[in-house]
Design goal:
This protein has 16 helices and 25 strands. The chain has about 550 residues and is α/β, with parallel strands linked by helices. It has three domains: about 190 residues, Rossmann fold; about 220 residues, Rossmann fold (3-Layer(aba) Sandwich), CATH 3.40.50.12780; about 100 residues, ANL, C-terminal domain (GMP Synthetase, Chain A, domain 3, 2-Layer Sandwich). It has an eight-stranded mixed β-sheet with strand order 2-1-11-10-12-13-14-15. Strand 21 and strand 22 form a beta hairpin. The longest helix is centred in the N-terminal third of the chain and has 17 residues. The two termini are about 45 Å apart.
């Protein structure tokens, strides 16, 4: 590529089947794999044929009863349960744009996202419907669908599981949405009918994926059908080149409303594999118990999850004999976490790097040549350059801002032309905000987030480096480094540490002094029971900075 990527471009080199939109991907995978299991949740296995039939029914309901038209937005606020893929594909078959919505959002966050996206419909998990009740009148949403965890199970299991969730675990606070439709009723009422199948162009928006809002207001990244298909196929090309059976049974503990898990699940479907959904990965006891029942071929996770699992007393009893691929993304992978995982499972961790705005993968370690500490080379048909403060291209080994151009890069931010313009270079590269270096072998290494960088007397200190050193200490479970204002040096390094046994400040600082330059050694060390994390397990340094202020 030597020019800006045109909207809707899906490189032929990775698209031998000539997909134009995600509906075509779905149709092809169903035709090839009708009787195979596409998703599994709480013991309910959903075949490709069932996924097709149920999503058809939902599309018909959206068209006939809700009168929704192609291009309308539908918010989906569900945990990892089988209803999620049903409504996503149903919405897409009707030509709607999916607005992925975090079930843990507060009413304020929901109101903002629904109004910013202009959503006209919502599918919500009953356990969080009470939050929707508080703000629904302030939005343009006209159609609301509610669902419980086991709504796609057989009648007896549905009654049992839903009753336990509601009455025993008390996970469904009372709510009042009088016009809401039971999703199960909507599906059953149209089962067997075929929708007027939409035929979006590859450049049409498929998903509005909102950023976490760590810098200012949350923005909707416009991800086209071409963006998502390209990134799905980039991953398929790289991973399947090493092992074609990696997608046989893939554990998906990260939420599907997050773009990392969303795109990986698409890759698994494209290969005719099975996504094993985990609704609550924070319940490590329950997660390990579920893993002990399975023989999995791939695990999709991130650093904090690897650490939590490896430190669980029963993790060693899980059968990993069929594990072929472990993929890490979403946050930096520490050497210690990678080593622990490999020792426990016998499988190396393949680290990738991406962003919401890039659908998400930009670079990925090849499965047969994993180099811990790097994010690998750029994925197929992707250009990367590293620039300095004046926008100049930097040489190998020089840290600078990572910029990316490729078919997976978003169209821009929804209704934010100015914000879109400022995040692209004149020649069409997306400016990531991450600091990276080229290694001599063509691999990339992320140094840190530009906004998380700590400036100590004019020296750049990258939290990832400090955290990697400290987590290698045998008594440290996890840690996070931030900059603390200082009148003499501008900033000093402050470190928050979670330890699994008695550990002193002096021990931590001595460990660092042996391994880090003096100005990188934490001046302040604070012990804590846990670190603040996002819903997908990312450590929220901004919350630590707020607490320290």
């Amino acid at each position: 590529m030597d020019q800006q990527c045109p909207p809707g471009w899906i490189p032929e080199s990775i698209n031998p089947r000539g997909y134009r939109n995600l509906i075509e991907v779905m149709q092809r995978t169903v035709a090839d794999n009708r009787d195979k299991i596409a998703f599994s949740s709480f013991g309910r296995e959903l075949s490709y044929a069932e996924l097709d039939q149920l999503s058809d029914a939902f599309a018909v309901y959206l068209q006939q009863e809700c009168k929704l038209l192609p291009g309308d937005r539908i918010a989906i606020q569900l945990p990892n349960i089988n209803q999620y893929p049903v409504v996503v594909f149903g919405a897409m078959k009707a030509g709607l744009i999916v607005v992925n919505t975090n079930p843990l959002y507060t009413p304020r966050e929901l109101e903002y996202q629904f109004n910013d996206s202009g959503a006209k419909a919502l599918v919500v998990f009953k356990g969080v419907a009470h939050n929707v009740e508080k703000i629904i009148a302030n939005t343009g949403i006209k159609s609301v669908f509610v669902t419980q965890i086991a709504d796609l199970h057989s009648p007896l299991k549905r009654l049992l599981i839903n009753s336990v969730v509601k009455y025993v675990k008390k996970m469904e606070p009372a709510y009042n949405l009088p016009d809401a439709v039971e999703l199960r009723h909507a599906l059953n009422s149209k089962l067997g009918q075929k929708p007027r199948l939409a035929n979006p162009s590859s450049s049409d928006i498929a998903v509005l994926q909102y950023t976490g809002g760590t810098t200012g207001v949350s923005k909707g990244a416009m991800l086209s059908h071409a963006n998502l298909i390209s990134n799905c196929l980039q991953g398929v090309k790289l991973i399947s080149g090493a092992n074609e059976h990696w997608a046989d049974k893939v554990v998906a503990p990260l939420p599907l409303y997050h773009i990392y898990a969303f795109t990986i699940s698409m890759a698994v479907l494209e290969l005719g594999g099975t996504n094993l959904l985990v609704a609550n990965p924070r319940d490590i006891d329950g997660f390990v118990k579920e893993l002990r029942k399975q023989s999995i071929s791939a695990f999709i996770g991130l650093n904090t999850l690897f650490v939590a699992l490896c430190n669980h007393k029963d993790f060693a009893e899980v059968d990993f004999s069929q594990l072929k691929v472990t993929l890490s993304g979403g946050m930096a992978l520490t050497y210690d976490a990678a080593e622990q995982w490999q020792q426990n499972t016998g499988c190396q961790v393949l680290e990738a790097y991406g962003l919401t705005e890039t659908s998400p993968a930009v670079a990925m370690n090849p499965p047969r040549d994993i180099r811990v500490g790097t994010i690998g080379p750029p994925v197929a048909e992707t250009e990367v350059k590293i620039i300095g403060t004046e926008g100049q291209a930097l040489a190998e080994g020089e840290p600078g801002e990572l910029c990316v151009r490729g078919p997976q890069v978003m169209l821009g931010y929804w209704q934010r032309e100015e914000a879109t313009a400022t995040c692209f270079t004149d020649d069409g590269f997306f400016i990531t905000g991450d600091v990276a270096v080229w290694e001599p072998d063509g691999y990339l290494r992320i140094v840190d987030r530009a906004k998380d960088m700590i400036n100590v007397s004019g020296f750049n200190v990258y939290p990832n480096e400090i955290e990697d050193v400290v987590t290698s200490h045998p008594k440290v479970v996890e840690c996070a480094a931030i900059g603390e204002p200082d009148q003499h040096s501008g900033e000093v390094v402050k470190l928050y540490v979670v330890s699994n046994e008695e550990l002193s400040v002096d021990e931590v600082r001595s460990w660092c002094k042996e391994r880090l330059t003096a100005y990188k050694v934490p001046k302040i060390v604070e012990f804590t029971d846990e670190l603040p994390k996002s819903n997908v397990g990312k450590v929220l340094r901004r919350m630590l900075r707020k607490d320290a202020a």
